[in-house]
Amino acid sequence: MGNVKSLGEFIVERQDDFKYAKGELSRLLSAIGLAARVVNREVNKAGLMEDILGDAGADNVQGEAQKKLDVYANDEFIRALKDRGEVCGLASEENEGVIEFKSGYSVDGQYVVAIDPLDGSSNIDVNVSIGTIFSIYRRTSKSGPATFEDFMQKGVEQVAAGYVIYGSSTMMVYTTGNGVNGFTLDPSIGAFFLSHPDMKIPENGKIYSINEGNYVHFPEGVKQYIKYCQVEDPSTSRPYTSRYIGSLVADFHRNLIKGGVYIYPTTTSSPNGKLRLLYEANPMAFLIEQAGGVATNGYDRILDIQPTSLHQRTPLFVGSKNMVKKAMDFMAEHSPKGK
Ligand code: AHM
Ligand code: MG
User: Cα(164) to centroid of ligand 2, in Å?
Assistant: First the structure.
């Protein structure tokens, strides 16, 4: 296939970028790529299978209806990362507590993974893009299975993060802190190939992504920013275009390529926002910074937030540098921090 590079080749080629024991992180990323391919197969045939579609009957820890594919994806990622020696535990959107991995190896796994196995799950049964989001840290505990404290690290401590988008094509996009690279799945071969090397988000964009149905519940700063996006001003290419898929991975991916801002702010009913810090905001923040963009909670950098619980929520403003900064200006002026 000429100069086409597979995900596996790329991971090995780049492992010298990494300051810790080389092979471990490479093997871990490969395991995620493998699980993604298995989940992709099920996502693609979801419409065919009565028993996969629909609610699984249980609610996840946030009390939201859990779809069968969520459960399937969760099981698949746990299976792919367990018993391999690299990972000592997992935090997942689908599980209340830490999933501890007991290793049979002489040295316990050095990494912990926070994961949203299938994000945007309300889009599954309507054939709209969904995704997997993952975040990887070095453990802080010494040995044995992962502990709660291993996950209470700021986003700046991530050693790798990424997502898989199950879209019109399936892609895996990840960073280990040396830029962002995107790989597209060739379904006929069953392998990811490097298709988007060194991804950079434009500093300015023309797309804003927000659930405007919640407008009345938004902070004044966000309301004013939305108005700003809608004003006509040819010098700044306004009015901007509104695009909202309702799958963070899909909205993020589009904005990463085209330039744009995604906002999920606080609302009156969700005073901390909806998205989760550990496995939604932090990995996306790491990726966007590596791509030259910005991620904040409206005031502060996402990656500097000290987590205090596994499923903690945060408002998220993420995307093109100048767009996020503009939105933050509106927040500072109309919804000052702490008021
Ligand atoms: P989920 O983890 O339950 O799927 O929720 C996260 C999703 C994001 O993918 C998406 O951006 C957001 O929730 C959409 O929420 P809303 O429907 O409130 O706009
Ligand atoms: Mg989610």
Answer: 13
